[in-house]
Amino acid sequence: MLQLRVLCPPERTDHVLRAVRADPGVAHVVVSRGAALEPEGDVVEAYLTRASADAVLDAIDATDLARAGAVVLTDAGTTLSAAGERAEAAVPGEPDDAVVWDELVARTGEESRLGGTFLAFLSIACVLAAIGVVTDSPITIVGAMVVGPEFGPLAALAVGLVARRWLLVRRALAALAVGFPVAMAVTGVTAFAAEWTGLLELRALPAQSQVSFIYHVGWSSLVVALLAGAAGMLSLTSAKSAVLVGVFISVTTVPAAGYAVVAATLGDWWQCLGSTAQLAVNLLGIVTAAAAVLVVRRRRSGSRDRVPTRELL
């Protein structure tokens, strides 16, 4: 279940209470009048099912309430409640499969921000991938896949396109357009520095190696990217977030970027081109499949797509 906490002006408390209590997916409602100090007002708390979250947020006018107070929606964790079980039974569908659109937009929006941490993780992942290429180490390549944070902007791009949130689309594109060139530049400098200091010896890349799958582009590359994008978005839109680790390992986005840098450093432009094409195929496939999953789930749930409060503030 989810926990909803609303800090609202006293004149709007009764409206919030009526809206919350009218939904069959709400199990518990608590009101503390005058409890909020900044801004001054009342605090309303409720426990509700994931399937009811969007309807309740619409009913209480969450967008307007966010301007005057705050609306917080969090995972309630382990909840032992007979009323909670009755609330989940009263709402059609499986609780874990419900899509909370405000939560999805807010989460992908946070993970798509271009900042120092994002650039650091992407650069580290790209350098790890380059080391894996030079040492012919698939294990290091897998490590680079896990470290890479690029799925956040890719998911945000899919959400923004489907929900027509152009600010989210621009933010995701900026993260990808700036992040990958910066990470590849850092990798190139690191490669030259490692060779100059003798830490690594850059030699011609063999035509066949344990990591040659990175630049071999084919239908399998597109299929894997589509499946990874679908699985990743299913994980984000449900309560099964552990699946994301498998998604990170299955796609060759960061490894392709690292391989392209190493190949360019050695003047092997054919393999550099192949790696770049692999990167483009994976990025396009992930976004396409993720967007398709969102379209299908949106039609099945019938949820209305609202502008999330955090994008308005």
Automatic annotation (TrEMBL):
The chain crosses the membrane at residues 114-133, 139-161, 173-193, 213-236, 243-267, 279-296. It comes from the Bacteria. PANTHER family: AT15442P-RELATED. It holds the Pfam family DUF389. Coiled coil: none annotated. The keyword Transmembrane helix applies. Keywords: Membrane, Transmembrane, Transmembrane helix. This is DUF389 domain-containing protein.
